[in-house]
Amino acid sequence: MDKITTSIITIGDELLIGQTIDTNSAWIAQQLNAIGIWVHRRVAIGDVREDILDAMAREAAVSDIVLITGGLGPTADDITKPTLCEYFNTHLVQDKGALENVLHIFESRGLPLLQRNLDQSMVPASCTVIQNRRGTAPGMWFEKEGRIYVSMPGVPHEMQGIMEHDILPMLGDHFKTPAVVHQTLITSGMGESFIAERLVAFEVKLPPHVKLAYLPSYSLLKLRLTAFGLDKVSVAAEASTLFHELKALLADITVADQDITIGEVLGQLLKDRGQSVGTAESCTGGLIAHWITSVPGSSAYFKGSAVVYANEMKVKLLGVKPATLQAQGAVSEAVVREMVTGALTLLQTDYAIAVSGIMGPDGGTPEKPVGTVWIAVAAADGRMVTVKHQLRYDRERNTQMTAVYALNELRKLILQKG
Amino acid sequence: MDKITTSIITIGDELLIGQTIDTNSAWIAQQLNAIGIWVHRRVAIGDVREDILDAMAREAAVSDIVLITGGLGPTADDITKPTLCEYFNTHLVQDKGALENVLHIFESRGLPLLQRNLDQSMVPASCTVIQNRRGTAPGMWFEKEGRIYVSMPGVPHEMQGIMEHDILPMLGDHFKTPAVVHQTLITSGMGESFIAERLVAFEVKLPPHVKLAYLPSYSLLKLRLTAFGLDKVSVAAEASTLFHELKALLADITVADQDITIGEVLGQLLKDRGQSVGTAESCTGGLIAHWITSVPGSSAYFKGSAVVYANEMKVKLLGVKPATLQAQGAVSEAVVREMVTGALTLLQTDYAIAVSGIMGPDGGTPEKPVGTVWIAVAAADGRMVTVKHQLRYDRERNTQMTAVYALNELRKLILQKG
Fold it and tell me: What class does CATH assign to B4-174?
């Protein structure tokens, strides 16, 4: 069975000088995978005519589909459309639907209209125009020598609207797509090598159309099983059998048997139990609360947080004793114990998380170097667990590692009871 | 003057199915740019032998440098090293330094050592080994037919350590690199098209070795001026002259004249004035506080936050009146006014930010649809500004847009006084 292959070409100097991180490609790949289309190459190039022409020709030589994002804006550095005309040997014409869309957007926002905005309704004559419901630059679908080419704006929510509403259904119609099933197991507490050792026999017997990937994600490890086949039902059945076997082999270290965030894992536990949580955050500055509330519906179990960066706030909001701060310092087991107790009282929740640490680059001492962090998790029934970590990364990564560790500690505390 | 060109090849199925977002390429591009090396192509491929060989040959045909990340882990899906041996027609040998590094890491962490860990010290015989100070997989430097190839692990902090300590200096020695200067202006309150209109004359007269790019970033717009040349001093002087002209043209809408985050912009203003800030967050769930505290040294001006997701917490922590919540609803001007006043009192800061909104996907009503958000910013001297936004994106983007809007409103309030 031949895979339907896609190359994604992202156009824009900002991707090459590192000013922008490419999130579009990951999103597109997820969507295409779900309908059985395989992204086997992603290429990023600048706003350079020759590079665009070259990339299109190269990718069309090895892929069935060439998806292009970026370079469709109203400014002078956006040269994708004239370059598409050159590639497809055609010329720009005005599209009535795209023009109406531009006029409607400017009218509804009460903005004056410039020629360069009107120009966004010009499209290569040989394309099928895909209207953009979220912006002024339309998408474009081309067919040439058995290949499909799609050009879309690089603004993520505009591209996503065009993909979901039009391109994914059109690709599904155009190709006879194979079935792909992904199953993800999230583990904690065991290194990649040790898990691999435990899975030697399992991996050896995997058929060639099933792959297992190891994906470290902060202090967690994701194991992704992927199965391909012609028939959706049999692929799903085979993947399910193997995934159950994998789960049984790793039951003692499993965090979740689906690809969700640690915030979602925790949310499901709390929702199932009708219980609530709050946080008391020093070094993470609100990140743990943000991750909890990133989950839709989190208001069912999340009440609030005290972000207590300054010591005076630890005292005022959480009742941490000045004497404890004085004697032990803000980054200490004694202080996170008082913080988590204070959070349970302040927020009146079933569980609370407290963290205090030194995230860097400054603020370390010989006794408490950068990366020292104390975590406390506690339940209203009196149970409390504290852990210390010594992290070794930069400020951003230390903060995110701390948030994952803290959420995972609370997960373990909640399950301890059952 | 010929540019030194680089292709970045990232290897790993997780990048192609969209499970991982590629942050390495952006970081590498920033570092190379700073020493005058131009990344003109980035390619992502899977853990597939043929695709790796093909990508290396293709990229070497158009680039001076081929940087490869990923596929060097200890598990079965990591096939980069044998494939490198095939490409360079060599074989694996054990490297003494890499072996000592592996032994040292496992000993210091008290972990038992497996054969697959020891195998990480095997390297292609023809490479120059670059020791990895942050992990077990060494970097590798190859030269072939006038091209430089570098293979590094995909774990970001390991790759960064190898680049900073070894590869960047080695590339600097090997090539006579041109000078590149970037200058970035951040603006708010005017659309891309209108700015472009204002800059028509400026853009027309830019010499060919200077480029201007428009980079929308949430509700802000970044304008990046890039100049190339042989001589660092003259390039910097030319870029500086043009950038001053650009700043003068956009003085009324300038947020910052360097590429920093809105959290950093605000931090500088507060630090300069010796003033402090705190937040009262409902719908952003702590994100604004997290962005403020992501800046090293933010403890100088940030005291804390009340994340008040539940209405009872708005009352308890901030003194919002139950009658106001009852009459106006949590997402209302009256409530954010009481929240911001309560935050100033609770946190005893010079400024406070309060936000309340409906981020979606659920919770909207006909009068207050998803995306409705109220922001209040206030100063301890009594000044207060409230704004309402109607956002139109998904939960994540709505939350981030809200955080940018709120921080920018406070920036304006602080400057209002001067």
Answer: alpha beta
Going B16 to B21 to B27 to B29, the CA torsion angle's sign is positive
Q: CB burial class (10 A; 0-12, 13-18, 19+) of residue A148?
A: buried
Q: What tokens appear for A94 in the block? A: 């005005």
Structure tokens at B155: 């774990």
The verdict on domain A262-417 having CATH code 3.40.50.10490 is no
Confidence of residue A180 (pLDDT cuts 50, 70, 90): confident
CB within 8 Å: B290 and A284 = yes
A399 and A287 Cβ atoms separated by less than 8 Å: yes
B282-329 pLDDT per residue, tens: 999 999 999 999 999 999 999 999 999 999 999 999 999 999 999 999
Q: Is the pLDDT of residue A137 over 70?
A: yes
In Å, what is the CA distance from A270 to each residue of A187, A255, A297, A403, B37? 19, 15, 12, 17, 51
Residue B75 has its nearest CB partner, among A26, A196, A290, at: A196
CB contact under 8 A, A74 and B192: yes
CATH 3.30.70.2860 segments of chain B: 179-256
Phi and psi torsions of B247, nearest 5°: -60, -40
Pairing relationship of beta strands B139-144 and A179-188 according to DSSP bridges: unpaired
- B393 contacts in A (CB within 8 Å)? 157
Q: If you average pLDDT over each of A66-80, B209-223, B264-278, which comes out highest? A: B264-278
Distances from the Cα of A181 to the Cα of A203, A234, B228, angstroms: 17, 10, 48
Element (H, E) at A384: strand A384-390
Instruction: Write down the H helix ranges in A47-150.
Output: 49-62, 80-87, 96-108, 115-118
Residue of A44, A184, A193 lying closest to B74 (CB–CB): A193
**Alpha-carbon span B125 to B173, nearest angstrom:** 23
**CATH of span B179-256:** 3.30.70.2860
Residue among A214, A287, A394 whose CB faces B73 most closely: A214
Mutate which: A75, A218, A356, vs B, most B CBs within 10 A: A75
pLDDT of residue A247: 97
pLDDT at B33: 84
Residues of chain A with CATH 3.40.980.10: 4-174
